[in-house]
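Data availability (excerpt). The following record was deposited with the supplementary files.
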Amino acid sequence: MPQLLTIADLNQPQQNLDGYLAVTNTLSQAYFDYVANNQDEGYSYTVEVSGGKGRSPGIHASEMSQCLRLVVYSIMNVERKADTANADVNMLMRFALGTAVHSMVQTDWHRIAAQTQGRWTINGEAGCSMTFEDEVRVHPGLGGPAAEWDLHSACDGVFTFWNSQGQPVLRVGLEIKTESDKQYEKLREPRDYHKEQTTLYMAALDLPLMWVFYYNKSNSNITSSYPPYLFQFDHKLWDKLEMRFAKAHGMAAQGQLPERNEGMPCSWCAFSHTCQPAILKGRKPKRTKLSLGMVKRQRG
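Predicted structure:
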């Protein structure tokens, strides 16, 4: 049986690739089936919240598309320090909810993998299995692109499919994102910066395929494991990212800072205390206020 374990394995006849895509396309249905069939079982999951203060210096996938100055600060190992005076508390609460959804979905996939051993069919071969690993680390010790560009991050998950003889034949990355109802309804494909973030994971972990799993926080809809939310490694996009990495490392080495890219993320950026963006000067921090059981956003 051919395999699709690495990016290089994408260079094979489309007929072979179609056989693997037929499997990956069933992942979202497997998730729906799991939810439907486990209503009577109790289980628990743990939510781990890691603050940004302990992040390693270098390039992080979740930061590289926001502001180049942020990336340079990280490479230079500038102190990360929360700006509590300008904090957007509502957004921080959204982040916390997103972290909880991540843990829930990751726990679900561990349970799905355990329950479906020997139940998958790949390229006509029955008796195949799937395993799931969460929080797959990206670090320079991996060698390759991670070492070359000093990359640090964690991919939300990696599916590995095994044939009936116990040999790995297919690997797929998983990225979990939460969206409000209004933003979810606008989705037609993965957001550009999410595609960039996951391309870093794919290059560093040598993953040929990635599924961006968007979760609607209002009604629990999810995006299917069909294209465009499941996609192959994009060499052109990776070339673009490498140019950005080279520029950031070059500026950090020379002690230069790029222009600020100011916007809403400045209110939760770990480097705003150093950067001092003008957008935060004289800004009234956003808070919620409670009134007669109703939560209203305070006008800034």
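Summary of structural features: The chain has nine helices and nine strands.
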